[in-house]
């Protein structure tokens, strides 16, 4: 055996010889990438995220607009080509040009909270411009002292009144506010305004997972082209690892590890953060991210077709746990998608959260960042600094948490200082967002009249109607004109788009004004000197005293529900009938009652099938991107069913999951159809007539009419079956009228009869009589 020094020398010699061999192979390369041929003088831009790269493009464009406008007007600008300012090795930016650029922005820009932009906004503009110049040229344009001079000039502009010093309050959402938003997501009011009941599951899962992962909106859903490079640079199904875990008492539960790979749309790391999810109690299913995520996976068929919660639990976890295998077709498929398979954008989900805040009654917008500030405050109190930075996606040496602090206090200092509460952190619930219940969700009738009287809207409507009338005069319809490729069709599309955009902008502006007016126009308290009861003065009439709660309730009329009630009433009065009662979706019990007591009727109940055409109950595969078409056929597609199942707390995990999967597998719009009149599950096909309701703008009314026609036919057939044969003797109740203007037949009450029929009755004494019967 060789001595130790000989062995060490031999190892070093081997490494040296290996390097020489690899270097000789590198010199033989012919692709121009050998060490000798590599150009080391080329500038390499520092790696940045996709979002910051877009900020660089915007900064270059903003500076180019400045050169285009101010270049011909100011002789101090010697070079007006923006490409030369951002070319490699260029150093054309000077303090004078930057100051002129800042003065140009201050005089020509308008802020969101003031007529002028704020100093913070100006600092961001200049920082992005200087950073873009360094990234493109590879040369630092200014020294440290020159940069200080730039920011000193910004402060001088603020002091001179060129820039605004207003600051937007950073509102904070507490856990109580999150509970209100989750309850609003599962409310009937929200489900009436979504395209599919899947949207309810998406927004509930998004808010819960947003908080539980301590992330940002673009970490979970596609942030758009300005943040993420590709549509699947977000949370995908292959980033979710599901496990069956064997707990101590022998039970099996489901757990998950969520890998957050694209924080802020970055591409540099494979896995940036892993969040563990566990099941909450079944009565907290609305707030359980794991339960909602597994439900969405079962609806989409991530674990294969026909998988259920019970089949997942049946997997043998072994001694501790075992991962549940997913289908390979879901690799790279985003978790948050629409009912048609398109990836949902974080901006759209954020708008839904704001809409939920309107339903709850928050004065200020309940954005995603209000939730992020909420759990940031919680982590600051209950977690160490390193854990907070890691969970929120901040760098180790980052001090950015100071930006999450709000001027609005989130602590009960009054109670904490006096040690009234024993808890460590006493939060002020629902005071930051300022909640008021029962606020209108759309504009008032007066606001709608204001929209209709807008001069520009009237002009746009006139132009669109004139173009449409001219096309219809020649072709008969706009569709025929489109098929004929008439050159005026693009003009009609432009005019219609201009009309819709103007109407949409007016509706949004008027609604925001009326919504904010509910918080501004307060009624004054009127305290009588002889009475201690608290009353308020009606602002419309100073002599009328109202209870104090009427300040929040009296004028908050929900116009959307009013319109829905009118539509439902008109639908219920189809064909002269006053009321149509929708019954069970599988069968209908037709109660055959007598026109007069004891007149040729029995008390039997006839069960009639609601599918007379024998339509296939199996749903068609109408979804895209492997969204499960669903095999279950629930009786009630309403969100009420899953809401009651969640709040009951008496169901097992498997039973609750079955109900949730059944309800959220529906593709039709929830709430619009009466119970029992929904299309076939997974399709838009009417279960009564077999027609496709997907392109019908009045699909609920069409399904209602088809249901009524079927019931009318079934009632007439049942009536004929129960007529006594002419050669059969019977008795009848002879008192009272022989005709009824509004007979009750088969559960349908009508103002007008459907028809008459003469029936011959043989009495016990053999005398025949004829009666006219309405049906």
UniProtKB/TrEMBL annotation:
Protein's UniProt name: Uncharacterized protein
Listed InterPro entries: DUF3435
Species of provenance: Lachnellula arida
Entry-linked Pfam families: DUF3435
């Amino acid at each position: 055996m060789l001595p130790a020094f000989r062995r060490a020398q031999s190892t070093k010699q081997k490494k040296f010889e290996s390097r020489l061999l690899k270097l000789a192979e590198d010199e033989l390369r012919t692709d121009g990438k050998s060490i000798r041929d590599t150009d080391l003088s080329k500038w390499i831009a520092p790696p940045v995220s996709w979002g910051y790269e877009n900020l660089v493009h915007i900064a270059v464009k903003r500076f180019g607009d400045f050169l285009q406008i101010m270049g011909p007007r100011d002789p101090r600008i010697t070079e007006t080509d923006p490409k030369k300012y951002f070319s490699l090795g260029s150093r054309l930016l000077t303090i004078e040009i930057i100051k002129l650029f800042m003065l140009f922005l201050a005089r020509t820009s308008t802020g969101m909270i003031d007529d002028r932009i704020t100093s913070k906004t100006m600092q961001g503009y200049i920082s992005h411009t200087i950073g873009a110049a360094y990234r493109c040229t590879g040369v630092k344009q200014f020294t440290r002292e020159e940069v200080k001079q730039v920011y000193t000039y910004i402060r001088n502009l603020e002091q001179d009144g060129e820039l605004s010093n207003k600051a937007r309050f950073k509102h904070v959402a507490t856990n109580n506010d999150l509970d209100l938003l989750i309850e609003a997501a599962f409310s009937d009011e929200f489900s009436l305004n979504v395209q599919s009941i899947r949207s309810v599951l998406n927004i509930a899962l998004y808010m819960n997972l947003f908080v539980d992962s301590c992330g940002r909106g673009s970490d979970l859903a596609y942030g758009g082209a300005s943040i993420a490079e590709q549509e699947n640079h977000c949370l995908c199904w292959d980033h979710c690892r599901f496990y069956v875990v064997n707990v101590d008492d022998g039970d099996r539960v489901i757990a998950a590890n969520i890998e957050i790979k694209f924080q802020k749309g970055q591409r540099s790391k494979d896995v940036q953060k892993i969040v563990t999810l566990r099941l909450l109690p079944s009565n907290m299913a609305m707030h359980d991210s794991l339960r909602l995520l597994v439900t969405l996976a079962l609806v989409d068929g991530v674990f294969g077709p026909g998988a259920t919660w019970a089949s997942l639990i049946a997997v043998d976890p072994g001694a501790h746990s075992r991962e549940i295998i997913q289908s390979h077709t879901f690799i790279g498929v985003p978790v948050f998608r629409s009912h048609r398979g398109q990836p949902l954008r974080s901006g759209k989900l954020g708008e839904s959260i704001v809409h939920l805040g309107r339903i709850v009654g928050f004065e200020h917008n309940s954005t995603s960042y209000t939730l992020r500030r909420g759990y940031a405050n919680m982590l600051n109190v209950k977690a160490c600094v390193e854990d907070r930075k890691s969970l929120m996606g901040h760098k180790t040496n980052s001090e950015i948490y100071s930006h999450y602090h709000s001027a609005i206090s989130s602590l009960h200092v009054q109670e904490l200082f006096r040690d009234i509460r024993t808890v460590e952190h006493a939060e002020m619930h629902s005071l930051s967002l300022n909640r008021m219940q029962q606020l209108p969700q759309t504009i008032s009738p007066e606001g709608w009249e204001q929209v209709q009287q807008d001069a520009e809207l009237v002009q746009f409507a006139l132009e669109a109607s004139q173009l449409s009338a001219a096309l219809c005069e020649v072709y008969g319809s706009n569709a025929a004109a489109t098929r004929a490729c008439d050159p005026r069709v693009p003009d009609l599309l432009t005019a219609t788009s201009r009309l819709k955009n103007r109407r949409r902008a007016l509706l949004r502006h008027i609604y925001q004004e009326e919504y904010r007016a509910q918080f501004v126009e307060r009624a004054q308290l009127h305290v009588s000197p002889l009475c201690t009861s608290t009353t308020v003065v009606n602002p419309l009439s100073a002599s009328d005293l109202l209870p104090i709660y009427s300040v929040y309730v009296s004028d908050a009329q929900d116009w959307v529900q009013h319109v829905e009630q009118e539509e439902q009433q008109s639908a219920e009065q189809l064909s002269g009938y006053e009321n149509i009662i929708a019954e069970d979706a599988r069968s209908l019990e037709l109660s055959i009652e007598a026109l007069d007591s004891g007149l040729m009727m029995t008390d039997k109940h006839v069960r009639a099938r609601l599918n007379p055409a024998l339509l296939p109950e199996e749903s068609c595969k109408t979804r895209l991107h492997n969204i499960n078409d669903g095999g279950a056929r629930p009786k009630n597609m309403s969100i009420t069913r899953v809401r009651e199942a969640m709040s009951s707390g008496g169901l097992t995990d498997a039973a609750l999951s079955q109900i949730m999967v059944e309800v959220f597998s529906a593709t039709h719009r929830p709430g619009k159809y009466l119970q029992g009149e929904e299309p076939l599950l997974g399709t838009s096909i009417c279960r009564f007539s077999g027609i496709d309701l997907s392109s019908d703008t009045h699909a609920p009314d069409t399904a209602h009419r088809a249901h009524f026609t079927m019931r009318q036919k079934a009632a007439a057939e049942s009536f004929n079956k129960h007529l006594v044969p002419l050669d059969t003797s019977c008795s009848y109740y002879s008192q009272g009228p022989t005709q009824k203007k509004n007979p009750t037949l088969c559960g349908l009450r009508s103002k007008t009869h459907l028809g008459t029929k003469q029936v011959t009755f043989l009495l016990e004494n053999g005398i025949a009589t004829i009666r006219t019967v309405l049906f």
